[in-house]
Amino acid sequence: MICPQFHAPQNSLQPEPAEKPVFRSIRDQKMKGSLKLAACLDSLATEHLASEFTQMRGHSVVLDAGQVAFLGALALQLLLASYRQWQDDGKSFQIINPSAAFLDGISLLGVAASSLRIEETAEVLQ
C-alpha cells in the first residue's frame, strides 16, 4: 500500500521555515513522554519511529495511535520489540486511543491487541 503524501501549498512570498513544525511538535511531545503515531506506519515511518524510540529509551512512553490509517508489519514488529524492551527496563510503554485501522492492522498481522496491552474500547470498534 502506498501512503498518500499531503503537502500544503507554499506561498512563494514567505520564506521556508528553518525547521518543519512536525519536528518541533515531536520534540515537544518527546519531552512530555508522549508521541503521536503517524497516519501511515510504513517502512519509512518505522525508521523515524525507531530513531524516536532510541532517544526516548529509559523514559516512560505514551503513544497515541488515534490517527493511524495503515499499520505495516515492520512497524508492528518495532512496537512489539519496544514494548518488551520497555518492560525489561521497568518503564511504562502505553498505546492509547487506537484507531480502528490500527486495531485491524494488528489483527490482520496475527497479533492480539493484548500483546501490547491495548484495551479495545467500544468507541473504537463502532
What attributes characterize this protein structure?
126 residues; alpha/beta; Transcription Regulator spoIIAA; three-stranded parallel β-sheet; disordered C terminus
What are the segments in which pLDDT stays under 50 over at least 5 consecutive residues?
14-31, 122-126
Task: State the major sheet.
Answer: 3 strands, parallel
- CATH topology of one domain, by name, is Transcription Regulator spoIIAA
Portion in beta strands = 5-15%
H/I helix tally: 5
| CATH architecture classification of one domain | 2-Layer Sandwich
Number of strands: 5
- Kindly provide the radius of gyration, computed on alpha-carbon positions and rounded to a whole number of angstroms: 16 Å
- Rounded to the nearest angstrom, the distance between the terminal CA atoms is 24 Å
Structural class: alpha/beta
Inertia-based shape? globular
| CATH classification, class level of one domain | Alpha Beta
Give the % helix: 40-55%
Going by CATH, what is the homologous superfamily of one domain?
Answer: STAS domain
Mean pLDDT: 79
Give the topology string: H per helix, E per strand: HEEHEEHEHH
Short description:
This protein has 126 residues and is an alpha/beta fold. The chain is 44% helix and 12% strand.
